Amino acid sequence: TLHKPLVLKANVHGRPLVDVQWLKDQKPLIPSDHVKIERQGDQCILTIPDVKEEDMGSYTLSVKNKVGKVE
Questions:
Q1: Is 51 in contact with 8 (CB distance < 8 Å)?
Q2: Rounded Cα–Cα distance for residues 57 and 25 (Å)
Q3: Residue 71 and which of 10, 12, 27, 32 are 20 to 30 A apart at CA?
Q4: 5 and 47 in contact (C-beta within 8 Å)?
Protein backbone atom coordinates (compact mmCIF):
# COMPACT_ATOMS: atom_id res chain seq x y z
CA THR A 1 0.00 0.00 0.00
CA LEU A 2 1.36 3.42 -0.90
CA HIS A 3 2.66 5.62 1.93
CA LYS A 4 2.67 2.68 4.37
CA PRO A 5 5.71 0.81 5.70
CA LEU A 6 6.84 -2.46 4.12
CA VAL A 7 8.79 -4.97 6.21
CA LEU A 8 9.97 -8.27 4.72
CA LYS A 9 11.67 -10.84 6.95
CA ALA A 10 13.32 -14.16 6.22
CA ASN A 11 15.20 -16.63 8.38
CA VAL A 12 18.26 -18.12 6.70
CA HIS A 13 21.06 -20.38 7.82
CA GLY A 14 23.54 -22.66 6.17
CA ARG A 15 26.91 -24.31 6.46
CA PRO A 16 29.24 -22.89 5.39
CA LEU A 17 27.92 -19.47 6.31
CA VAL A 18 25.71 -17.85 3.70
CA ASP A 19 25.83 -14.48 1.97
CA VAL A 20 22.45 -12.84 1.46
CA GLN A 21 21.27 -10.09 -0.88
CA TRP A 22 17.84 -8.55 -1.35
CA LEU A 23 16.79 -8.07 -4.98
CA LYS A 24 14.03 -6.01 -6.57
CA ASP A 25 13.00 -7.18 -10.03
CA GLN A 26 16.19 -9.33 -10.11
CA LYS A 27 18.46 -6.32 -9.45
CA PRO A 28 20.42 -5.86 -6.21
CA LEU A 29 18.93 -3.43 -3.69
CA ILE A 30 21.30 -0.91 -2.18
CA PRO A 31 20.65 0.39 1.35
CA SER A 32 19.77 4.08 1.50
CA ASP A 33 17.69 6.53 3.53
CA HIS A 34 14.66 5.01 1.77
CA VAL A 35 15.62 1.30 1.93
CA LYS A 36 16.94 -0.28 5.13
CA ILE A 37 18.57 -3.73 5.06
CA GLU A 38 19.48 -5.51 8.31
CA ARG A 39 20.80 -8.89 9.33
CA GLN A 40 20.25 -10.00 12.92
CA GLY A 41 21.72 -13.46 13.31
CA ASP A 42 19.76 -15.74 10.97
CA GLN A 43 17.07 -13.11 10.30
CA CYS A 44 17.29 -10.86 7.22
CA ILE A 45 15.05 -7.78 7.22
CA LEU A 46 14.17 -5.38 4.40
CA THR A 47 12.32 -2.23 5.47
CA ILE A 48 10.86 0.55 3.33
CA PRO A 49 9.27 2.97 5.81
CA ASP A 50 7.20 4.90 3.24
CA VAL A 51 6.33 2.91 0.11
CA LYS A 52 6.29 4.95 -3.09
CA GLU A 53 5.13 4.12 -6.62
CA GLU A 54 8.70 3.26 -7.70
CA ASP A 55 8.94 0.62 -4.94
CA MET A 56 6.39 -1.61 -6.63
CA GLY A 57 7.92 -4.81 -8.02
CA SER A 58 9.03 -8.32 -7.14
CA TYR A 59 11.29 -8.68 -4.09
CA THR A 60 13.53 -11.72 -3.63
CA LEU A 61 16.17 -12.74 -1.11
CA SER A 62 19.19 -14.39 -2.72
CA VAL A 63 21.08 -16.77 -0.42
CA LYS A 64 24.37 -18.32 -1.45
CA ASN A 65 27.55 -19.93 -0.23
CA LYS A 66 30.26 -21.98 -1.89
CA VAL A 67 27.95 -25.01 -1.92
CA GLY A 68 25.05 -23.37 -3.82
CA LYS A 69 22.54 -20.57 -4.32
CA VAL A 70 18.78 -20.20 -3.59
CA GLU A 71 16.40 -17.35 -4.43
A1: no
A2: 6
A3: 32
A4: yes
